[in-house]
TrEMBL record:
Record localization: Cell inner membrane; Cytoplasm; Cell membrane
Protein name: Protein translocase subunit SecA
Family, per entry: Belongs to the SecA family.
Main localization of the protein described in the UniProt heading: membrane
Binding-site residues for ATP, renumbered to this chain: 87, 105-109, 510
Length: 802
């Protein structure tokens, strides 16, 4: 009550932010006539003055108003597009490192040009991040006339190592073209467009390079993330992984698959919420018998157990035509948020191989992680991060807590006329499908364009078959037909058009209406199911009613839908029974719509906790990753490692002495053989230590100093033989290879550790605390092994002088 009263008196925080930006917008508008009066060269000269002002004083805010006014005028001259006031607000919000929520059709692509031009004057890395290659290329080509006119260079990063510079095609007509260039050149451009995964992979590849010349990225200064909720929230649970081939035999996967196929429902338990399945006691017995194993949980069978668990998940929770499709003899992942095919991605940890065995496909070799990072940690490296999307407000807490990003809802340029009807809820899936078909038929007869949103390939194919039987012309847009996406979307707003689409139709596409379609009531959005996230539903709704166009939306649901079945259909079923709902009849009720929204909120909160938990685990790895990558970088930059290596010699000798020649033990009881064996293994020599003499003189410290000095003399004599520069080069080459080898091994161990600590939760111990503790110990061990192996490699090298 109190917060409601405060909002009435002072307005919401969003209102206050918008109010504070209004004076800036007024100042930009005051400058419009000044910008219009300038010649083309005059605009460029004024911009150069602003750039010089920034480099003298170091404050972008001081030049913001003039920069926005010049960018707006440039857009008018080159693209015949003038930024609206609400777009100026959006530009300011993005420059300030916040998330701008702007509805579909409000021109986010144009909005981004304002802060990009302003921040490009710093001459540091300025990136516009999109969700796919098509949008990166389209937006860069579309907006490039503004940047090129003002004297900025534009780079485009694409998959398969393709990169381009955008250049003038016809300077008089303001048309542009792509010219192939090196990856490095694209990143050196003043403004670089690309996809989230390519930026992330380039970062990982840079940190696997063996020369600074191979690095393509520069500093992480400013990034605007388009469809920020998709990239920073939906994809946050998917780490970017560069992998090599591991050597697990594929025949074992087929054998384990056969073992899992013979299980009955009572042999396992499935948890759909977390997409996991576990064996019951009867299941364990059956698997052990089939595989000829006494104890599946024995330490020596840990790998088999892991494969059994993955095979069980493949059979029970990963569904064909929903989570993946089989095409050209391959299992291809379907992105659960966009419905797009992801041929370049594979489930990690042996799950993809388990799916291949399930579908009787040829098993691709399993991969071993060579480098990985989550989007969360990649984007938190930027000094200044901003984002834009049509739907962010529902996840404002997550943006704030994880990325420290404030969400600002930008008003629309024209009021939204779309009518959002209450949900219709049916008892069964069959009743719902009948109602959907009737609704489509009615709208088709009327001539109104319809966009039908489905949650999976399977559901879109089901509707396609029924509509085909009824002879209703329609287009299908899903992961199986994605090649025709642009063409299908181009016509989706025409009269009598019926388009069935998975979530892939939700982002980055504008469905334009013909005048006749507007007369017929605009685009009708028909949702066949509620998604776990309200944002995805809002994205679908947002396809209709752009820029003040008319439109309608309605969701058709049944108690058999996944969301309602898993998260709360009981309450709704009771309500329907109480109201006496007949077969084929739907219920349209605010209470039910609210109950469904509460179910979605529950799932969103649950998923937020999973992502937060993932980040807490990845933060542990992230600190270690930064230490290793920094060490690699300093080696490549030519750091002199001699003092470090001689320091390692001291600490290795001290550690061996503590283990074999303990200070508090009489020297006659020392394990001198053990000490010499280790010295020989590492330094390729031994020492004559007289235990009896040392018992008398008690000069252990002097003896150890003598050992260290002899080892260092040997090191210096090697250096004299091959020269100072050659020795420094040799140290760097050896250390790089040793660091990489141990880091890869450490990543593999951390993967296994994540699995193992989960079980410790059953012993009333916090898995995260256990993970932090064990991973810290493992990292310390790895650092010691790196030092030891580097030293051993150098001491074992035989130098032959010709």
């Amino acid at each position: 009550m109190l917060s409601g009263l405060m909002k009435k008196i002072f307005g919401t925080q969003n209102d206050r932010i918008l109010k504070s930006i209004k004076p800036v917008v007024d100042k930009v508008n005051d400058k419009e006539s000044w910008a219009k009066s300038l010649s083309d060269d005059g605009i460029r000269e004024e911009l150069k003055k602003l750039e010089n002002r920034y480099h003298e004083k170091g404050k972008l805010d001081d030049i913001l108003v003039d920069s926005f006014a010049l960018t707006r005028e440039t857009a008018r001259r080159t693209l015949n597009m003038r930024h609206f006031d609400v777009q100026l607000i959006g530009g300011y919000v993005l420059h300030k490192g916040m998330v701008a929520e702007m509805k579909t059709g409000e021109g986010k692509t144009l909005v981004a040009t304002l802060p990009l031009v302003l921040n490009a004057m710093t001459k540091r890395g300025v990136h516009l991040v999109t969700v796919n290659d098509y949008l990166a290329k389209r937006d860069a080509l579309w907006m490039a006339p503004i940047y090129l006119f003002l004297g900025f260079s534009v780079g485009v990063i694409q998959q398969q190592n393709k990169s381009f510079l955008v250049e003038w095609d016809d300077k008089e007509k303001f048309t542009t073209k792509l010219t192939p260039c090196s990856r490095k050149e694209a990143y050196l451009a003043d403004i670089t467009y690309g996809t989230n995964s390519e930026f992330g992979f380039d970062y990982l590849r840079d940190n696997m390079s063996y020369s600074l010349d191979e690095y393509v990225q520069r500093d992480f200064y400013y990034a605007i993330v388009d469809e920020v909720d998709s990239i920073l929230i939906d994809e946050a649970r998917t780490p970017l992984i560069i992998s090599g081939v591991a050597d697990r035999p594929s025949s074992l996967y087929y054998k384990v698959d056969k073992a899992v196929r013979q299980l009955k429902p009572e042999d396992y338990e499935v948890d759909e919420k977390v997409k996991n399945a576990v064996l019951t006691d009867s299941g364990v017995e059956k698997v052990q018998k089939f595989l000829g194993i006494d104890n599946l949980y024995d330490i020596e069978n840990i790998e088999i157990l892991h494969m059994v668990n993955q095979a069980l998940k493949a059979h029970t929770v990963y569904l064909k035509d929903k989570d993946y499709i089989v095409k050209d003899g391959k299992a291809i992942i379907v992105d659960e948020f966009t419905g797009r095919l992801m041929p370049d991605r594979r489930y990690s940890d042996g799950l993809h191989q388990a799916i291949e065995a399930k579908e009787h496909l040829r098993i691709q070799k399993e991969s071993q992680t060579l480098a990985s990072i989550t989007f969360q940690n990649y984007f938190r490296m930027y000094e200044k991060l901003a984002g834009m999307t049509g739907t962010a407000a529902t996840e404002a807490r997550e943006f704030k807590e994880i990325y420290n990003l404030e969400v600002v809802v930008i008003p629309t340029n024209k009021p939204i006329k779309r009518i959002d009807h209450n949900d219709l809820v049916f008892k069964t899936h069959k009743e719902k499908i009948n109602a959907i078909i009737n609704e489509i038929e009615e709208r088709y007869k009327k001539g109104q364009p319809v966009l039908v949103g489905t949650t999976s390939v399977e559901k879109s194919e089901e509707l396609h078959k029924i509509l085909s039987r009824k002879r209703i012309p329609h287009s299908v847009l899903n992961a199986k037909h994605h090649e025709k996406e642009a063409e299908i979307i181009a016509h989706a707003g025409e009269p009598k058009r019926v388009t069935i689409a998975t979530n892939m139709a939700g982002r980055g596409v504008d469905i334009k209406l013909t005048p006749e379609s507007k007369e017929l009531g605009g685009l009708f959005i028909l949702g066949t199911e509620r998604h776990e996230s309200r944002r995805i539903d809002n994205q679908l709704r947002g396809r209709s009613g752009r820029q003040g166009d008319p439109g309608e939306s309605r969701f058709f649901l049944s108690l058999e839908d996944d969301l309602l079945r898993i998260f709360g259909s009981e309450r709704i079923k009771l309500l329907m029974d109480r109201l006496g709902v007949e077969e084929g009849e739907a219920i349209e009720n605010r209470m039910i719509t609210r109950a469904i929204e509460n179910a979605q909120k529950k799932v969103e909160a649950y998923n937020f906790e999973i992502r937060k938990n993932l980040l807490e685990y990845d933060d542990v790895m992230n600190k270690q990753r930064q230490v290793i990558y920094q060490q690699r970088r300093s080696i490549l930059e030519g750091k002199d490692l001699k003092d470090d290596i001689l320091g390692y010699v001291d600490s290795i000798v001290d550690d061996l002495a503590s283990a074999y020649l303990p200070d508090k033990v009489d020297p006659t009881n020392w394990d001198i053989d053990g000490f010499n064996k280790e010295i020989r293994r590492i330094f390729d020599r031994t020492f004559d230590i007289d235990a009896v003499e040392l018992s008398k003189t008690k000069q252990r410290h002097k003896m150890l100093e003598d050992v260290k000095n002899q080892l260092k003399d040997e090191y210096n004599s090697k250096e004299e033989l091959i020269g100072n520069d050659e020795m420094r080069n040799l140290e760097r080459q050896i250390m790089l290879q040793v660091v990489d080898m141990h880091w890869r091994e450490h990543l593999k161990n951390m993967d296994y550790l994540r699995d193992a600590v989960g079980l410790r939760g059953y012993g009333q111990r916090d898995p995260l605390v256990e993970y932090k503790k064990v991973s810290f110990d493992e990292f310390e061990e790895m650092v010691k092994r790196i030092q030891e192996d580097t030293v051993a490699s150098i001491y074992h090298i035989r130098i032959v002088v010709e």
